[in-house]
Amino acid sequence: MALTNSTxxxxxxxxxxxxxxxxxxxxxxxxxxxxxxxxGKVEIGQGIxxxxxxxxxxxxxxxxxxxxxxxxxxxxxxxxxVTSGSRSxxxxxxxxxxxxxxxxxxxxxxxAQKLGVTLESLTVKDGVISARGGGSVTYWEIxxxxxxxxxxxxxxxxxxxxxxxVVGSSLARVDIPGKITGSPSFVQDMMLPGLLHGRVCRPxxxxxxxxxxxxxxxxxxxxxxxxxxxxxxxxxxxxxxEQAIRAERRLARITQWTPGPELPANDPxxxxxxxxxxETEIINTKGDLSVAGTKQLSAEYTKPYIAHAALAPSCxxxxxxxxxxxxxxxxxxxxxLRGDMAQVLGLPEQDIVITxxxxxxxxxxxAADDVTLDAVLLARAVPGKPVRVQWMREDEFCWxxxxxxxxxxxxxxxxDQGNIVNWGHELWSHAHSTRPGSKGGVNLLxxxxxxxALPAAKPGNPPLPGGGSHRNAIPLxxxxxxxxxxxxxxxxxLRTSALRALGGFANAYAIECFMDELxxxxxxxxxxxxxxxxxDARAKAVIEKAAQxxxxxxxxxxxxxxxxxxxxxxxxxxxxxxxxxAEVKVEEEVRVTKLWGTVDVGQAxxxxxxxxxxxxxxxxxxxxxxxxxxxxxxxxVTTRTWDEYPILRFTEVPEIEVALINRPEAPPxxxxxxxxxxxxxxxxxAIHNAxxxxxxxxxxTRERIVAALSV
Amino acid sequence: MNLVLNVNGKACEVRADxxxxxxxxxxxxxxxxxxxxxCGLGQCxxxxxxxxxxxxxxxxxxxxxxxxxxxxxxxxxxxxxxxxPLQRAFIAEQAAQCGYCxxxxxxxxxxxxxxxxxxxxxxIRAALERNLCRCGTHSRILRxxxxxxxxxxxxx
Lengths: 711, 156
Description:
A: 711 residues; 3 domains; 16 helices; globular; B: 156 residues; Ubiquitin-like (UB roll)
């Protein structure tokens, strides 16, 4: 007789199905031959909706064209938190895979009963269930609303990878046809009857307070419907968009602000000066930290404040009806946003209905949530009327939350074979997560400026193993003795939050540059040196494949102008494996001429979708490493336009070659963020290979090249 | 005031101040929302349209400057049923991620291919110098434009 084990953990359902267990929250089988797919994850240009359609169609045995998507809404969608961390395949995809498989089982059971045959005699093709001995019935005939009105059960078997036909194929993205024909595709494109336009006049800098203002002249400008002041929140609503813009400019001219606290110098090493308020945590120790080899090395790397710099400034539409409000937003987290919004408005959550409409690619927590509160506050000044607010380009650059500056200090001991026998990694950073939905405060910009201001929640990090500032700080390499220390400085001069890969960008960059420095000290080839310190077979496979693609030559040398370098990481130490080789040409500036990448995301649901994400991540990371830094003076952000925030252009982007190592038998993981650190490191290493000079501070600008060469 | 614009081959009346940037008239008066705001300073190319054969950033041009000129927007490039070779090529190469830059890039590419159906890689890159893409789909876009050029040459 089996013993009951009272300490057995509760069984979990796959992905977000565990917290949203009702099947009808995910799927509806319709009498008209379609299936409605409902997800709480949102499209941000990563192609997630197409991948979710594939996973659902696969398990239901229906053609992908039968699937209809409902935009995520707090009115009916499963609550899947935030679309972030490259987790949508794991969260929503695995939930839908399981829910669809169970729906198929339920439909088959009903068909067996109706046809008077056994389950084993049934086969399904595109929703038509046929019995071996004759007779058939369709999903659309037998599905009734009660079919999925139940909780998911645990014992449902999904297809084996070798049975997949739709999953693993490169289905064309469902959203691209609309986007290439100029159809309304974004929240920016929403046209509602009687739509008004709003703009917000932001403070002169962080912490600045609005003094007395007489805005009667603005109220009398053409088209102006309302001017709203609440504390230091100042905005305008007008009939036409250009009228709202002109009125906001006039407001900006006539306002006076009491400055906020003085901002420090724009140098990541300012973090070190804040050591007294750092929360220091040793996040990993292993072995004997006193082991000293024959050679000791150390190096310090930095990255500056970086912007998401979405191509579209953030936008939202809101409309009040009595004490309820309808909101359209490109937020990555409609439910967390609703929670914060309810606190600001003093309304029960059910009176706030938030529907997702796509915006431009965001790459993390940008101003999407902030502009939504702006729209809601301005719409409240014109009850019943829909108000569309789009931030101006300078609003987006000055007020979006940035990726935190970081400092990484690495040290290592090598034995007489050059092997790494001791490793240390210390990092300093502000927080990487200040999204709405955080406990103990409201994380929406306008809420801090209101007369009755609501304070922000304490800035923080997602916990390990994924981590925030400490993401990818623990090396994947097999160092026998190691110590990794995270210094978190929560108070930051400028607001910081999640940007693609969070701290993983800078940590993987630092680790991979330092590996090259150590390889050089050991007289070893950088590729061989990495392989000798790795046991993980999948990690080795991506590195070997990248070297093979690029025809890497052992200990290859640059020629004073051209050079190549490698970078590697496993994203969050638990997701995609990525290796990158960069080729650079250094003249007046660093030019990346070619990038080779290899990626292993386990089972690739849509191989071309994975490649698209990887290629895009590689170009964006190259842009950040070469060019990007947010600037500010003593009172405000001075990066206001693309002139002050150059990104890689068509004339500058490298040639790219990416290979996918598909492992259908391995769980699928996201592809969106893993390239960031490896690319920056590969470029840093290629510059060193070309010039013999090491740049440790991003971005790798012309001034820094000159400075490194003159040492 | 009332202004008459020639957009996509049609005379369209717009009631707006003559200093209004063309972008807002296209989007908010004529409902042509495929042309998009990105910076308002002519730096990013999201709002690119073709005016008298040239790719122009519509956020930076007042209505007074375009009266009497031929303006075409992405909506005139082709519809779902009658796609332009550039649009077919963007689908074939899956040359988009978020797609916010796409309309402007399609129009800049059309202005190029209208005068040069056999552009070199460098010529295509130069024609897109004023168009930004933040998602990093540049390689796919370059491939798509070459594919479209090839199709256009095949026809001619």
